[in-house]
Amino acid sequence: MAAPKIIAQIVITGASIFGKAFVDAYKVAAANAARQRASSGEVGADAGVDGNPISPSDALNKKLGITLDEAALILNVKKEPIPTQQEILDRYQTLKVFRAKERLEGELKVALGEQEATGAQNAAASQQPPSQQQQQPPKP
Question: pLDDT digit string (tens) for 33-66?
Fold first, then answer.
């Protein structure tokens, strides 16, 4: 008689777990659908939470996931006036060249350090006194 009761409890517990999972999945799907509608430009996409239209700058923030302040900070440029594409590209290339130069200098230092260490070991070995030969005791 205990077996049917246990089976019933397992079925009820499993159903409640699946029910909760289904509800959570539905909430996530609904949120994703709303986000998708907003980004695709369907009805209501240009309205904010309060019903007012979203500014183009706010729309870019939402679409790209980065604000103008953050972008200016990352590229180390002033945000007013907004830099041209060529200015941004020049700054990016300058940073990449600088980082590449740093990397090559670091590798050169490592290589020179290894050569100096090897040279120091060789110099130390050549400066050691020759090993003393075993002296045989004089024969009587």
Answer: 888 877 765 444 555 666 677 788 888 888 888 8
- What is the spatial distance between Cα 48 and Cα 30, in angstroms, rounded to a whole number? 18
Angle at which helices 56-64 and 2-40 pack, to 10 degrees?
140
Rounded CA-CA distance 77/80 in Å is: 9
Mean pLDDT in residue range 73-97: 82
Helix-helix angle 85-127:68-75, to 10 degrees:
40
Q: What gap in Å lies between CA 9 and CA 1, rounded to an integer?
A: 13
- Find out whether 53 and 47 touch, Cβ atoms under 8 Å: yes
